[in-house]
Amino acid sequence: IRRLISTVIGLLAASVYDSWWRSRRLFTPLSNDNQIEKNDAKFWGTYRPQVYMGMKTKSPRSLVTGLMWLKQHERYQNELPLRHTCEHGDKLLRYGWTAHDGENFGIQDMVEQGYIIRTSFVKKSGGLHGGDWTWRVTGTQTLNTSTTLSVFFYAATDQQGQLTPMQAFTQSCRTNVQTISGETEELGKFSIKFPSENTGVKTRYHWVAARAEGLHKIKDAALRKMQAAIEKVNNREKVIYFLGDSPNKSDPPGTTSDVTLKLPFELDIVFESGSAQRKVELSRDVYTTQLASWKEKFDQNFEERFPLKNKGYDTAQISFAKAMMSNMIGGVGYFYGHSLVQSDQQKVPVPYWDAGLLTAVPSRSFFPRGFLWDEGFHQLLISKWDRSLSEEIIEHWLSLLNKDGWIPREQILGEEARSKVPTEFVVQHNKNANPPTLFLAIESILRGFNKDNVDERDRKFLSKIFPKLQVWYDWFNTTQTGPVPFSYRWRGRNGDTDSELNPKTLTSGLDDYPRASHPSQDERHVDLRCWMATASGTMAKIARVVDPDSASKYEATHNMLSNHKILNELHWSAEMGLYSDYGNHSERMYLARKTKKPKLRFTDTFGYVSLFPFLLQILRPDSQQLTQILEDLSAKDLLWSDYGLRSLSKRDPLYMKHNTEHDPPYWRGAIWVNMNFLAVRALKHYSAPGSRNSEKAAQLYKELRWNLVNNMYKEYKRSGYLWESYNDVTGKGQGTHPFTGWSALVVLMMS
């Protein structure tokens, strides 16, 4: 009995330890090897894409700088419309970078009704802390009316270091701050200067010190310090708003300054590192010359990488492409903090470890944070402009792998990022995947390597990422497999809901795209299977360079997942003539879903998911299935439109149908650029001479590419923005804007 009790206690202890050990793996990093290099030329950058203008360093406790502005002489009924974070509600006619090289300079226009604010910056390397930089802010009128603006510049530290305003008294300004002297742990000593020879008629100059509860509250801190006064303009009384300390002396100190100017104006803001040496200040004519020089180099490099002149594009179209690429680069941000995650072992969410992430963002206004499946598409473009930047971003994402090989699909790091996210989307669950699109980007980078002799730098990059990719790849093959061999299934669908027309599959990235009507463990998802075929092929190519002994394993898996016989057995519906998911499915009768008895069968949906064996170029060029897909692709009552391929067939019962009363269609007919890019790329691949499908593919390639580029350019001219998706009937942009994440792939389609 004693031995039995001892054995039972031992088993219970082992079970408790196993549960404890498994729970800790959720928030334990696979490795921690991202080092901060302060003398990196990209240490400073516009790494705050969520604000109209701001700079910080790639480090956890950076000095943060930013810009705000306010139109004066207006009587505002509600909260002052102080511009700061990128917001739809601000209703700017247009804003975004017109040129940005990701390292040395950038030029950006914010177009308001009646005036334009242009912000530009130039960096100069040197010293031990990222060197110097200068901003130039200019204001110009576009209407024949007098306009007065207040421009607010702020510098903030994160509970460490110090900022000391150095004042000067002049005839025109009571308390003119010429310099902010500072010191932080990461930057050492520095100064921020406001040269007095700026152009423009100054009417007021103020500064205040304040403390904000976090970066997401800086605007609120400025508004708390705002005061109003009446002044006479052309013998009429006008309201003027300015920064000033209120009688409440308990408000703790910290540094924001504002200057009120009549348009036109120009002012420089100069940051100088205490560890850098310089002969002249980077301002005035020196700045003008440097900016012009970097812009000229940018134009030359752009034409080398994306030769649009040779393809017949005019100056306006090329400027459009430069702006879209620049907005992708200018949308790269550095975020620091932790995700909130949960597994079956946790009753409540727990914090992931604190980590930094360098990533592009889908939208500065609505999605200013990292999304895993978006990022692979982003890097297809970024890697063509600056491969080292792309490789650094990929390394950052892979550093977020936990011990099990999971990466949270949405990275909500820090208070500033979290303030933009609805509560229900904050917690990430460790069973949920996202398409492994980073393999697309890595595959694209591999094509740029010397195939016969991979150089040491490239080999070092592959050697660094390969062990992490192995763990990530194994996680997919452990947790996302399907019910039969060589099948895969997305997790995360809700099989218990009665409120959805078709339960969403958020983990697939395609959200409300129709799947099997009744979620179950019997499902097989063709898109995930194709993603894993692509991943296997990329793993095999990397292994041949850095670990030849393991290459055969990945090649065998790739061959199996690319095997047409197995693919067709699992996912080809001969009756419907299309590739399809398989699962517990019934004919859809709108919200009467649960009244129809389902059965295991292929789903009767034709759309993006049906195209995946074609999109990821798994089909043989002469296959009958490819012939069928190309035939269906061009049918206007299915996916083809004058503006691109719609996400769901017009014949489908769920085409443009709400998923719930308050959940409008998302991937149920709209034109999405990332999927259309894959289609254009695949058509180019299959148009190579030598197969029975090449002529049809070549024709569709030419037509689809033209439809997409022409409509996106036309919509940009009309609206001033790229959009999240495009209407399949009118071609108009819809959803959030600006969406210079994967919609910026229009640059690759042009080139």
UniProtKB/TrEMBL annotation:
Region Disordered, residue ranges: 497-520
Topological category with respect to the lipid bilayer: Single-pass type II membrane protein
Glycosyl hydrolase family 63 C-terminal domain: residues covered: 284-751
Pathway of action: Glycan metabolism; N-glycan degradation
Subcellular location: Endoplasmic reticulum membrane
One GO process term, biological-process aspect: oligosaccharide metabolic process
GO cellular component, one term: endoplasmic reticulum membrane
Superkingdom: Eukaryota
Pfam families to which the protein is assigned, alphabetical: Glyco_hydro_63, Glyco_hydro_63N
Enzyme category, top tier: hydrolase
GO MF terms, alphabetically ordered: Glc3Man9GlcNAc2 oligosaccharide glucosidase activity
Residue ranges annotated for the Glycosyl hydrolase family 63 N-terminal domain, each copy included: 43-203
The enzyme's E.C. designation: 3.2.1.106
Signal peptide residue numbers: none
Catalytic activity, reaction form: N(4)-(alpha-D-Glc-(1->2)-alpha-D-Glc-(1->3)-alpha-D-Glc-(1->3)-alpha-D-Man-(1->2)-alpha-D-Man-(1->2)-alpha-D-Man-(1->3)-[alpha-D-Man-(1->2)-alpha-D-Man-(1->3)-[alpha-D-Man-(1->2)-alpha-D-Man-(1->6)]-alpha-D-Man-(1->6)]-beta-D-Man-(1->4)-beta-D-GlcNAc-(1->4)-beta-D-GlcNAc)-L-asparaginyl-[protein] + H2O = N(4)-(alpha-D-Glc-(1->3)-alpha-D-Glc-(1->3)-alpha-D-Man-(1->2)-alpha-D-Man-(1->2)-alpha-D-Man-(1->3)-[alpha-D-Man-(1->2)-alpha-D-Man-(1->3)-[alpha-D-Man-(1->2)-alpha-D-Man-(1->6)]-alpha-D-Man-(1->6)]-beta-D-Man-(1->4)-beta-D-GlcNAc-(1->4)-beta-D-GlcNAc)-L-asparaginyl-[protein] + beta-D-glucose
Family in the record: Belongs to the glycosyl hydrolase 63 family.
Task performed by this protein: Cleaves the distal alpha 1,2-linked glucose residue from the Glc(3)Man(9)GlcNAc(2) oligosaccharide precursor.
Protein name (Swiss-Prot/TrEMBL): Mannosyl-oligosaccharide glucosidase
Organism: Ciona savignyi
